[in-house]
Amino acid sequence: MYNYVLFDLDGTLTDSQEGIIKSVEYALIQMGESTEGRLDQHTVVGPPLLETFQHVYGFSEEKAKKTYAFFQQRYSTIGKFENKAFEGIVPMLQFMKEKGIRSFVATSKPQVHAQAICEKFGIAPYVEKIAGPAVGGTDTKADIIQRILQYIGPTYQDQTIMVGDRKFDVIGARTVGIPVIVVGYGYGNAQERNAYPADFFAPTVADLQKMILDK
């Protein structure tokens, strides 16, 4: 059994694609940009959006920041609540807490939005700390994970695992030197999982719970 479990948010604890995709669509329209081929969940859900706007859409840094501002205009008021916890997640977190396992959220989503989402959907009572970048921040997933590890202290070694659904979670965990579980119900796909293999794979929430508790 792991003592400390760090969870990604989007695609791991919550099904957030609707709000993110609609808010990216809104931002592109406000910028006078086409949305065609740009709203696939594998493109826009998971990685930092400033990175997506620059490196996937090919926007300049200035244009990416302006697009991101339009995204925040909708997401901060409407989009973040077009969301729901995956079935079984809240009971799993509650059970983990009862077993003495300390849970955390390490997300690329701005921390202020992550906190609001966790409170809205019943996750907050079961997680000890939520870490994410500032709005418009450029923290990597490794930076965010490291903040949680520093909070835990040196006892985290050999007792901590990261749980996510995308390559960014795997890369972040590898960078800081902790194992990682990738879930199959989120926004990653088999091709990405093969290219960025995790230590463990949990197809369902039930599998994830068993994996964490049976270590």
Mind sketching the topology for me?
Layout: E1 4-7, H1 17-30, H2 41-44, H3 49-55, H4 61-75, H5 89-98, E2 102-106, H6 111-120, E3 129-131, H7 141-152, E4 160-164, H8 167-176, E5 180-183, H9 190-195, E6 200-202, H10 205-213
Parallel strand pairs: 1-2, 1-4, 2-3, 4-5, 5-6
Task: Explain what this protein looks like in three dimensions.
With 215 residues, this protein is α/β, with parallel strands linked by helices. It contains ten helices and six strands. The chain has a six-stranded parallel sheet with strand order 3-2-1-4-5-6, sandwiched between helices. Strand 2 (102-106), helix 6 and strand 3 (129-131) form a beta-alpha-beta unit.
Summarize this entry quickly.
The chain is of the alpha/beta class and 215 residues long.
Key features of this structure:
single chain; 215 residues; alpha/beta; six-stranded parallel sheet; 6 strands
Largest sheet: 6 strands, parallel
Low-confidence stretches: none
Strand order of the largest sheet: 3-2-1-4-5-6
Broad structural category? alpha/beta
Number of helices: 10
